[in-house]
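Please, structure for the following, as tokens.
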Amino acid sequence: MLEKTVGKLLMEKQLTIACAESCTGGLLTSVLTDVPGSSAYVMGSVVSYSNEVKNRILHVSAETLSVCGAVSEETARAMAEGIRNLMQTDLGVGITGIAGPDGGSAEKPVGLVYIAVANQAKVTVHKNNFYGTRSENKYAAVNHALIMIQDIIRSTYE
């Protein structure tokens, strides 16, 4: 299972992680903490479903939320940096999107999810378009986030 591989990498490299989740509602954190011993590397998470929490807790600027929107590359980036700073971790993950079945538009359709992973050196953001049910979109986002985390650890900390 991918979460076990990610957990093993985090343990081996002695890295810590925290998550800021919107459309996944804490699912990434739940999956990460399903692995025994995960308390050694998962420091915490914030489910930032509202813009108020994104702004007040994660320090996503009101301007970013207003101009770019809650579902944007800029917001995902700010969420990842915000949670990393808040929890003082090596890695921060930000996920924001539209899980569905409602809430989409022509510019931002259902299934649009931005995932960002921040470390000390940089922030990597991926734009994704998933095409499933609400639950399928959430799990697809979590799986993609796990792959991103794994790839970043392997490319940065080897």
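The mean pLDDT is 97. The chain is about 45% helix and 20% strand.
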